[in-house]
């Protein structure tokens, strides 16, 4: 990536996996990194504090909580470098997976996956849009190869990734005139290095069935 020094990026889901690695990578490239962490005092956040420069900021963020999203936006505004007009890049990375047959999922489990993967991502984007438009910057959203392919036991998760693909494809056209770039990334399996198989959802499915 060319000319990244002193640019600003906000990344959701930096506790582990891809978000954690991106935060470290971008910090190493000289960027100002705002790392959204569900557990700001957890292992992942502490590792980032220890291994990265003082350009990296840990920002507490549960993307399903509107007040936390607004607090995150306010924090970024207050801590932008002097030369920054706004936010250069928003990376929507936070997400959760419930890996089980759809018939075993309760409505509450389905709602939790949808609230995190779809609504949370949409509302983070909405609240950060004014800062992004000032630059103008870019929005990058991590979806999944399951936005294109089908696979058993991930019906709700795949549905959320299809929803994100449709949403951001539309948003791309809406923001074109403002000079804001919108992109989606569709990776394969990263479940072994992330917390995407969230225990609160996956464990409850297991308990209710067995």
Automatic annotation (TrEMBL):
Pfam families: adh_short (PF00106)
One MF annotation (Gene Ontology) recorded for this entry: oxidoreductase activity
SUPFAM superfamilies per the UniProt record, alphabetical: NAD(P)-binding Rossmann-fold domains
Key words of the record: Oxidoreductase
Annotated InterPro entries: NAD(P)-bd_dom_sf, Sc_DH/Rdtase_CS, SDR_fam
GO biological process, one term: steroid metabolic process
PANTHER family xref list: D-BETA-HYDROXYBUTYRATE DEHYDROGENASE, MITOCHONDRIAL, SHORT-CHAIN DEHYDROGENASE/REDUCTASE FAMILY 9C
Protein family (similarity comment): Belongs to the short-chain dehydrogenases/reductases (SDR) family.
Protein name as annotated: Estradiol 17-beta-dehydrogenase 2
Annotated source species: Trichonephila inaurata madagascariensis
Lineage: Eukaryota, Metazoa, Ecdysozoa, Arthropoda, Chelicerata
Gene: Hsd17b2
């Amino acid at each position: 990536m060319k000319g990244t020094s002193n640019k600003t990026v906000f990344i959701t889901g930096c506790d582990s996996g891809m978000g954690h690695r991106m935060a470290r990578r971008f910090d190493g490239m000289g960027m100002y990194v705002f790392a959204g962490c569900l557990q700001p005092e957890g292992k992942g956040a502490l590792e980032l504090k220890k291994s990265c420069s003082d350009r990296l900021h840990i920002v507490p963020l549960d993307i399903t909580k509107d007040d936390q999203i607004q607090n995150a936006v306010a924090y970024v505004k207050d801590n932008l470098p002097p030369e920054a007009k706004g936010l250069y890049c928003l990376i929507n990375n936070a997400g959760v997976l419930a890996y089980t047959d759809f018939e075993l999922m309760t409505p509450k489990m389905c709602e939790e996956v949808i609230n995190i993967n779809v609504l949370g991502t949409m509302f983070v984007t909405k609240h950060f849009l004014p800062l992004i438009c000032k630059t103008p910057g870019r929005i990058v959203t991590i979806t999944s190869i399951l936005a294109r392919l089908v696979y058993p036991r991930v019906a709700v998760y795949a549905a959320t990734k299809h929803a994100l693909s449709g949403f951001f494809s539309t948003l791309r056209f809406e923001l074109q005139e403002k000079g804001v770039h919108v992109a989606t990334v569709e990776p394969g399996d990263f479940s072994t290095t992330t917390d995407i198989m969230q225990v609160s959802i996956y464990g409850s499915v297991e308990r209710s069935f067995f």
